[in-house]
Amino acid sequence: MVxxxxxxxxxxxxxxxxxxxxxxxxxxxxVTMVCVVILLTxxxxxxxxxxxxxxxxYRGSIIRRLRPIGxxxxxxxxxxxxxxxxxxxxxxxxxxxxxxxxxxxxxxxxGSLLGITAGFVGGKVNAAIMRTSDVFLAFPSVLxxxxxxGALGAGILNSIVSLTIVFVPPIARIAESVTTQVRxxxxxxxxxxxxxxxxxxxxxxxxxxxxxxxxxxxxxLISVSMILGAGLSFxxxxxxxxxxxxxxxLNTLRTAIYVQPWIAALPGAMIFMVSIGFNLVSDGxxxxxDVRR
Amino acid sequence: xxxxxxxxxxxxxxxxxxLLEIRNLTKHFPIKGGMLNRTVARxxxxxxxxxxxxKGETLGIVGESGCxxxxxxxxxxxxxxxxxxxxxxxxxxxxTDISVAELRRGVQMVFQxxxxxLNPRLTIEDSIAFGPRVRGVANTDAVNKAHDLLRRVGMAxxxxxxxxxxxxxxxxxxxxxxxxxxxxxxxxxxxDEPVSALDKSVEAQVLNLLVDLKASLGLTYIFVSHDLNVVxxxxxxxxxxxxxxxxxIGPVESIYTDARHPYTRALLSAMPxxxxxxxxxxxxxxxxxxxxxNPPSGCLFHTRCPFAEAxxxxxxxxxxPVGESHNAACHMEIAGSGHSRAARA
Lengths: 293, 345
Description:
The structure holds 2 protein chains of 2 kinds. By secondary structure, chain A is mainly α.
């Protein structure tokens, strides 16, 4: 017999951390998960390209130029120099993804640093940082990337530097506005009242509340970075032939557009797929992290 | 042992020494505008406020929205730098005898918005243990302290310590905020509208918790609120603020039964009566408080006061004694002020 007076033990599941619950919401989001799978496939293929038994992406053949898609031995045909398109597309992902991810990562670090500093310190420091970034924001990003790249000279490293410079101001702006918002909340005042230094407050109370939104915004920039990087290569400011890179391939295949339009469109399709993939993942992340309480 | 870093603060001045003495505390917020971001106006948020808080008492601060209650609270713990004025904690002047950091060891604050005052990304255990950790208490000691405090505010640590703020109700969050404020073992707690956002039943529980904590820990409270019933319940003395100045200050019974400042009387008459035989007879106070950007001359209340006379428009009344430790800033109470209702000098 269970006595009614006996206290019923309360069994309450331990609460999951914030990121665990975000992860679970992401797993339930089908569109995002499909995009994650596609992106992972492309990224892994690019990383492990040498082990996939692909043709040499650099070896051309004068007699096998511009073979159509589905030619035996050339699953996706050949380009204007008779090089295997499948191999070039997969190898091309290495540079294109590198150009897509690295500038955004750099800008995420630098922009967050500047934006959080501006937002937390406020006053003149804020004005100095934000007005300077406004100067950069006044230019269209393509123009700015081309101008900086042109000034620095062609090359992958320079195009990464120029893309980083392009992405720092928008990330700094987002970081500043989120930080300003969080800084005005009472828990920051409470932390100050308990005698914490500014650095401790930023580390314990600001960072974990602002990095998420900044990260989501940065993921949405990956696609822009890829497209801009491809654009720079297309203009001859990024990668140089015969390096496989999607933007550069788009440029060199442009002459073949009347002969083999499907082949000419393939690098563009890759850029499109990857950039829309990153955009949808970033959307998914945002809604998974947006907990209305 | 690192826990000794948070040993109870010593009583420096003895029981007769007020725990907190505020002298001429002033904060004017500049309003910037125009092309060159010049200061175009000033809001007199807190204007020459002077009062004492005795050891072990609860001082209620009441007033309308925007009268400077919350600014005063934040000035006391230096979340806002005052323009002028002196704060003495247990006889030691803040800034010269003790640092702001030492002041914050002895004075802590509970905020109105229970959700905004907890970091949504930290478990409540981490939120409470944050202060002790910052002060150099070792991690395990800080967590143990947090668990002790959770127990003290009536929340089982095994059930709640690892939870996040959004998993708690408003009342529970406010208990956590109280625990967090107690984590540094302060002597004075500034409670800035701690129950205003709670519903009535939870409000009563939290108020009773505050009363219990005060008795068991020997705390002193400054209780800021616009709710006159709550202030009457919890306070020993009441300070009435109007537009950044002290209108009246005195023991709770004499303020509630024998208010001398017309503003206090108007406030109290706006309080719904529980007794049908003592219905509110007076007309409620007319109009809104004047704009603190361009406050009226003389007595700040003369624009709404039914007894305003010429002297009220020209001279600001000083706080004058009207009873046992009861002061009011009204010309009608100052003998020889020139007001027709004042006693002759």
